[in-house]
């Protein structure tokens, strides 16, 4: 039977394996080319969670940033210069914060290269059990959280507190989205720059947000958070439980945010890069699992759930872009490697760091994979490195094209801390002086 896939624009479905109306397709394609040329594409970055495996997307971003410098001719080019929206879960949320937070001069705090190096250098300290407690370390994580939060919090505060003031969502350069799970409301909670600019009740300290999205149950205790104005509280645990791959959240944010992205009509107006942190693809035979109980399932089921959440998001988004626009969605993911480096999110040893670096570098050389509608994954002819090179070129060309377009592709709310006295709102979208056209 032919497969069916939504093209993301809401107008029609494509049936694979059937002959369509070529005249209608050609007219529609010409119309889309004209619209895209006039309106451009919103550029989205999404980074999965995965603990120490965050080194993998960090290395990928370092490669992409180098490619952007070469293609743009700007030796100071940064990831934040070319993406309009960034979403990250757990360590992906930390990477997002590092790459998109204003350092006080209008530049981001970290370069792509610096992100993975920080994880590599600080991982062993973050996942450290005090010497006095090592005798009963096997019980840690069962009876109590396995790790103290003081090391992680100390590192986050070192970079996300400036002149005695904790940086908040309003200090980010572009829209960011970072999820957690709120135990108080029993549901996902999405930290959003757009919400923070509208209302102080949704503005939170960035170091606490990073702490919240990475509060893996049994690893770290939950994060008890309060908004800047003290009106909103959140008892947060790891965002990966519900949104380990936040790409869908980022796309939904863009499609429904007509203030900042006024001309987006569907998936065809997006350029999306989604970075994974490794996928287990561990298989189990019936004879092995048929007598398993809760104890045997405890560890595998966590990996299955996290991989399944990320994988189904990837599959759905690939389908949503449709046959014609699927090239505008690039997913880079390590799969099929049941390696110890993939199994241990909390192994900060130098040996594991070296293994993760090699995995990332090998991943660049491997053939890229894509999801087919109802057909699983297939390897492409291009390597991940080649697809990233192509993606870098698209980002550079999009940025150049915005200088000449009549209609703005992106109009970001300004990160002002002043209240609009006319409309009694922070960064009121109605006032032009509170909006910036992104070029």
From TrEMBL:
Residues 1-28 are annotated as: Disordered. A motif (GXSXG) lies at residues 88-92. Pfam families: Patatin (PF01734). One of its GO terms (biological process) is lipid catabolic process. InterPro entries: Acyl_Trfase/lysoPLipase (IPR016035), PNPLA_dom (IPR002641). Keywords: Hydrolase, Lipid degradation, Lipid metabolism. This is Patatin. It comes from Riccia fluitans.
